Batch of 4 targets.
Target 1
Amino acid sequence: MEDQKNQSDNSTSPDSHRDDTTTPKVTGIGGIFFYSDNVQGTKDWYTKNLGIEINDWGSSSFEFRNVNKPEEVGSLQWCPFKKESDHFAPSKKEFMINYRVQNLEGLLTKLKENGVTILDDVASYDFGKFVHIMDAEGNKIELWEPKE
């Protein structure tokens, strides 16, 4: 009986709440994208008034460190798109959020099991893997698993 009590107590130790890096889930925001009537004017306004610097790709990168792994640097992308762009299609919304995820393949399996609409195949780049889905409100969502 004492052994069972000790095992039970150990299950609620702080170590048992460590994040499993293989659990398929969102870990943060990877980017915020929105439509603009005047993309260059919008970028200029944000630079002039809020100090947001635009990079060579036409967006801005906000860098941060992972609290649990301070040596790991991540970034959040910010970028306006031309209102006429179909970048967010089939969504009719004015924005798209990119979520950072871990275990993208496992997450896709879970999403398919739950009947979530997957819009495309996983695309791989030097900086990670991407796929697009639709949420229940018709918002296009970009999922990004950064390359380690």
Note: Confidence is low (pLDDT under 50) at residues 1-18.
Target 2
Amino acid sequence: MAHEERNSHGVGHMLKMTLACIIPFAIILILPFFGVSSKWTTFGAVGLMIFLHVLMMKDHFLSHDKHKGGIK
């Protein structure tokens, strides 16, 4: 099996993973400079991070099903 076949996600997947982590952390770090600081903002940003990662996991499993021939 070629390396390209094993690593089918490539740069796009890595970019999505990076953005799913950086965006919530940026919210947590930048909003206090604008006077927005509360525990709910932090919980919301962490919730956003979890939500974005769950969406990526869904795409990950769907792409594996396509490669196995399960979903066309």
Note: Confidence is low (pLDDT under 50) at residues 1-5.
Target 3
Amino acid sequence: MSTKQHDDASHGSPTKKAQILEVARSLKMARITPAEVEQIRRQLIARHGDHAKTSPDYIVEVLQEAGMRVVMSTKSDTEGRYEEEFEDLLHFSTLDEAEMCLIRLDELLRKFLAEDEHAAAERVREVARLGKRRAEMISRNHKVDALKRAEKEEIAHWFTIWLETPDTFFDWVEVRKQSPEFQRSFPQGTAGDE
């Protein structure tokens, strides 16, 4: 931490610490990864303005002091062994690409669980959580076309369902794509529906 960041942190610490903890608790996460730290950092700015800007390192420090479980990355647990598996996984500009992304994530998760590679399996989940957050951010960006925002909102929902219930996700998504609401919202459907 730089001297300026440390000075800022120590002089404004009760307020800034309270803001960080408030945001972290509102997210209700059992553990906090780098993606969650970034989400907390952005939420601080969104809720409290530019004066709430702070470094990720300071956020981690505050969370750890408060006794929260901070896991900076499972990448170090899997470094070099499976990284090629994770490259370019989060490429999904369409619903069809999002479904293919989730198929690949699901394949990796099942492979790693079958091989008792729990750190690698957790890394798959971490990548999926990042994909969900990326889709959510785009869905809330009013500079993006309305249909594209709706697609990203749908994709974020797909990631949520997969993260919560991977065993039933693909049956669910087939039913979802046949629903009248989906058909109205996305009349072009996905490439597999044409």
Note: DSSP finds eleven helices and no strands in the chain.
Target 4
Amino acid sequence: MAASGYIGRFAPSPTGPLHAGSLVAALASWLDAKAHNGQWLVRIEDVDTPRCVPGADQTILNQLAACGLYPDAPPVYQSQRGHLYQDALDQLIAQSQAYPCGCSRLDIEQAIAASGPSGHKRERHGELIYPGTCRNGLNGKKARSWRFLSTFHLSNRPSDQQIRAQAAPDLIASDIFRWTDRKLGEQQQNVAEQVGDFVLKRADGLWAYQLAVVVDDAAQGITHIVRGQDLADNTARQILLQRALGLPQPKYLHTPLVLGVNGEKLSKQNGAEALNLQDPLTALTQAGLHLGIACQADRPTHWLQQAVDQWAARFKITA
């Protein structure tokens, strides 16, 4: 661990090379780590193997290096860590905090439709909010996936977990879950109502992002998470999992998104082009401007030094 105790990370999915938006996320996480005199790690989130592009991981690492962003330890790969995710799922099952689900997407759509007119609105970010059909058993259906019981409150916990949980004032004792983001401020979400019982292991046998990221952050000792604002919506779920598994909670900071011409988050899905790193200084300068960082430098190393100082001043970091 770094002398400051800070460990941050950048966790790209190898579905293609970095684009302007992903460089902003990488740069923000790197700046925060260096401003804290901490470590910066890279984790390749290749758990969704059908979407991964062969060789994209090395392309991403080369792009980061071209910009002077070097991890402080060799990258780890989620595809090699399935045993850790299984251990976590087994723990949740033993605690009655995870259950098997036999519902297909069609089953979920039909259950939502049957709940009345308001049920048709229960969809967010293209993901249906699970109505809890299998909470009390599969009713003859074959298990397809595993879900986290989002209504598992403090009163249901084993006594040893209650003791640990009561030390956290913003725990799960009420339906509204609250946390503080270093940039966005106070945040809240009713996970049971706004998200539902979310998937931990998918019907195709692949591990879900929420479980994998929580397990990996704890295993790598991550203390601070800096990532794009589109992922802020995941934070409540991840903190719930951290609490359920008895894992430490990192501090969070979510940065503004780079938007495409259609006003949506810049991504490979909406035509984001790969970074042109023939001129890394220009790429860093453009990424920095999006983060409110403006430096005058003739080479990437000098630019990064100035950027760290500006970042530390903005967030009042005195590492």
Note: The chain has two domains: 7-79+222-314, 82-201.
